[in-house]
């Protein structure tokens, strides 16, 4: 998670209030004819971004109470996964290289990280933090990417194979190795929030965790949510607007956090090269859950168009919209028109 809001966070927040929450055209359903549905909305700044929850229920008080208790859980999980909070479990793991008796949440997300590293051939790798920090330091000090010899000196610290999990004990096998959960934690937390709301019988909901979006059911007039997919070079319009479905969606882009104004160098780091990938500007992924969409949207940018589309076509229930640096768009075969 980031430690401050970026320009992209404000863009995502705007989408959460407009395009991402606009209405579809499926008509008023029988439920609305029987009882009036009400909507409760709340936004908080958590996870280094804006998190918005819109909950639809016949009882607005119940919706409000469930949303607020869900934000309490989001805050707790943020305190587990933050690499900036000195009280978090991840901070302790990075500092000591090991943690004993970690929470089930940290163990679960670390296991998922390893699984997706294996799926992507190591291109999604939570141990890439030393490379990200090297880029940050280089641009802060000399406004230029790190030299190849600097990258080569850090690369040995990167490798998901160095993560060892034994029960609830987690260790990093190389001294100096550190982990960032920036590309997976928000998806994990949004899924947990949706699960908690469902347990409170709030099944018509839209959760936007800074661009990791979980839409379910309908809005209070019976229409589907619409999801606006941002143009990576023009935040005043959308590349596409699609009806919500039984899926989650995430967009990653070079414009979210960047070192140079042309977005060529940004916070997405290819572990093979040690710097940012050069082909794609953004990747939007639809998947079975928000964690999967979150991870794969980042992985697709690192993989590049051809490899990313090949991977997506072989993953059931997963689709992608990729945009290259020249603003050419490429859709997987089942991505909504």
3D architecture notes:
The chain is α+β, with helices and mostly antiparallel strands and about 325 residues long. It has a domain of about 180 residues: Roll (T-fold). Helices cover about 35% and strands about 25% of the residues. The strands form 3 sheets. The protein has an 8-stranded antiparallel beta sheet, with helices on both faces. It has a 3-stranded antiparallel beta sheet with strand order 1-9-10, covered by helices on one side. Strands 4-6-5 form a 3-stranded antiparallel beta sheet. A hairpin with a 2-residue loop joins strand 7 and strand 8. Helix 3 runs antiparallel to helix 8 and helix 8 packs antiparallel against helix 9. The longest helix is centred in the N-terminal third of the chain and has 22 residues. The N terminus is likely disordered.
Key terms:
single chain, 337 residues, alpha+beta, T-fold, 8-stranded antiparallel sheet, 3-stranded antiparallel sheet, 10 helices, 36% helix, globular
Give the SSE string. Answer: HEHEEHHEHHHEEHEEEEEEHHEE
What is the CATH topology assignment of one domain?
T-fold
**Number of alpha- plus pi-helical segments:** 10
Q: What is the terminal separation in angstroms?
A: 32 Å
Average pLDDT for all residues: 90
């Amino acid at each position: 998670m980031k430690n401050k809001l970026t320009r992209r966070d404000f863009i995502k927040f705007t989408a959460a209030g407009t395009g991402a929450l606009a209405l579809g055209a499926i008509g008023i359903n029988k439920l609305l004819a029987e009882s009036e549905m009400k909507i409760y909305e709340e936004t908080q700044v958590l996870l280094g971004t804006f998190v918005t929850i819109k909950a639809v229920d016949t009882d607005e008080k119940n919706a409000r109470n469930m949303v607020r208790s869900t934000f309490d859980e989001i805050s707790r999980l943020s305190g587990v996964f933050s690499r900036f909070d000195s009280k978090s479990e991840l901070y302790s793991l990075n500092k000591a290289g090991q943690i004993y008796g970690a929470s089930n949440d940290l163990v679960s997300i670390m296991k998922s990280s390893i699984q997706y590293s294996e799926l992507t051939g190591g291109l999604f790798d939570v141990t890439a933090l030393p490379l990200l920090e090297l880029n940050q330091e280089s641009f802060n000090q000399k406004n230029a990417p790190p030299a190849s010899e600097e990258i080569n000196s850090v690369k040995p610290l990167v490798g998901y194979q160095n993560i060892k999990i034994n029960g609830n004990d987690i260790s990093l096998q190389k001294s100096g190795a550190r982990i960032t959960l920036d590309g997976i934690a928000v998806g994990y937390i949004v899924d947990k929030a949706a699960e908690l709301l469902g347990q409170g019988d709030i099944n018509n909901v839209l959760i936007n965790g800074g661009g990791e979006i979980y839409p379910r059911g309908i809005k209070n007039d019976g229409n589907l949510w619409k999801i606006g997919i941002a143009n990576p070079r023009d935040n005043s319009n959308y590349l596409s607007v699609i009806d919500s479905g039984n899926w989650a969606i995430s967009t990653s882009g070079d414009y979210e956090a960047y070192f140079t104004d042309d977005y060529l160098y940004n916070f997405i780091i290819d572990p093979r090269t040690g710097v940012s990938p050069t082909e794609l500007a953004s990747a939007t992924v639809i998947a079975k859950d928000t964690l999967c969409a979150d991870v794969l949207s980042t992985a697709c940018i690192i993989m590049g168009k051809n490899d990313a589309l090949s991977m997506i076509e072989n993953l059931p229930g997963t689709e992608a919209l990729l945009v290259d640096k020249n603003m050419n768009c490429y859709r997987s075969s089942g991505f909504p028109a």
